[in-house]
Amino acid sequence: MRIITENAEETQKLGMALAKLVTPGDTILLNGDLGAGKTTFTQGFARALGINRPLKSPTFTLVREYQTTNFPLYHLDVYRLGEEGGAGELGLEEYFGRDGVAIIEWPEFIKAAWPNDFLTITIARTSSHSEAERVVTLDATGQQSQAILEKLETIWN
Known about the structure:
Oligomer: single chain
Shape: globular
Number of strands: 7
Distance between the termini: 11 Å
Strand content: 25-35%
Helix content: 25-40%
């Protein structure tokens, strides 16, 4: 699925739409360059789950936990792990496929820890004249993530 968002608000709305479809155990991998809009997307996602406090990227803490009305949201930013990874030593895989929903920024650094079922979202700047326009590409790996993506296609179009 490929979506063009015109501004940060639309990127957040996409995150909000997706949040209404997830259930505990779901994992979302967020890809994109620095400043692409990964945290902006996650802010909308969290807002739709009832998290009203400011949401910042957990670059220095690796994981921030937020309690929604139904389940925990685990926001991971593993950029600082770099090419060396280290998810196994840190136990990060404990956040996947369990009682909450995990959103992971820079997931390529912990590829060995990925669960079998996940939704991949890649956010990229466009070559248009609008600095805020983004191309958001969504791909599903696994049955649960495919079902989420199919529902999102129905409500987004």
